[in-house]
Amino acid sequence: MARDYMKPKRRFFRRQKQLNRSAAGNAILFVIMGICGAFMALPIIMIANNALKPLDELFQFPPKIFVRNPNLDNFTDLFVLMNDSWVPFSRYIMNTFIITGVGTFGHVVLASLAAYPLAKNKFPGRNLLFGIVVLSLMFSYNVTAIPNYMIVSWLHLNNTYLALVLPAFSYGLGLYLMKQFIEQIPDSLLESCRLDGASEFKIFWSIIMPNVKPAWLTLAIFQFQTLWSNTGSTFLRSEQLKPLQYALNQITLGGDARRGAVAAVQFILAAIPIIFFVMCQSNVIETMTTSGMKE
Fold first, then answer.
1. 177-220: per-residue pLDDT in tens?
2. pTM of this prediction?
3. Which of 6, 9, 75, 119 could form a disulfide with 183 if both were Cys (CB 3.0 to 4.6 A apart)?
4. CA–CA separation, 157 vs 237, rounded Å?
């Protein structure tokens, strides 16, 4: 018997039908979307231009959006400034990539593993567990900050990467999003895989994950942005473990003399999440436009 479950079924998602609009309606919609897009892109454009501005243009009032005499002096000043400190600038970057990468990967995997039985298996207390997850989404980070700190302290994880990584694993939005998507996969497909001798883990890895790729990529983008901007000041005391966002805060405290270095760090902090989003944007759009699944 052919093992069809080894081949991911990627055509389950069907797109919504395009609405019938006149040419004038399409033109008006295009203009409105263009104006909104320009306003949303303006901060990004200004960050990129500020990173290339000399100090005299950075202090100019009223500020100009576009740079007139671009140069890389701000980046040079940044690396000279950080190399003079006892913690190299590369160390802050490495810490940020470790925290962001491990936290994002772990959150996606654990949320998917937990969502699979909630979506496809019936057991006592399933609805109660999912209700608790949904209820947890109503609380902001400020409400759970003290309990999180107490739990991390009880586990003796303060001043380690795990102090930031482990709380990221348990974020409830990931489980909620993955469960909603896994529920749309036909049960008949999973039953055919079981009849063909596939284990539950094989079904999860070869069928579930490929077919909900838009969902977990969207989740990865959200978690990546959250961890990338984390300062780690609550749990991390050692300078050797601090992320890049903490370095930006320290540079900002230096006053106007470091305005150019601040602009360079802001560009670095904004560029990486944007690049990651651009790489995954087609799947994010597919997540937002998904209307259901079909056999």
1. 888 888 888 888 888 888 888 788 888 888 888 888 888 888 88
2. 0.73
3. 119
4. 12
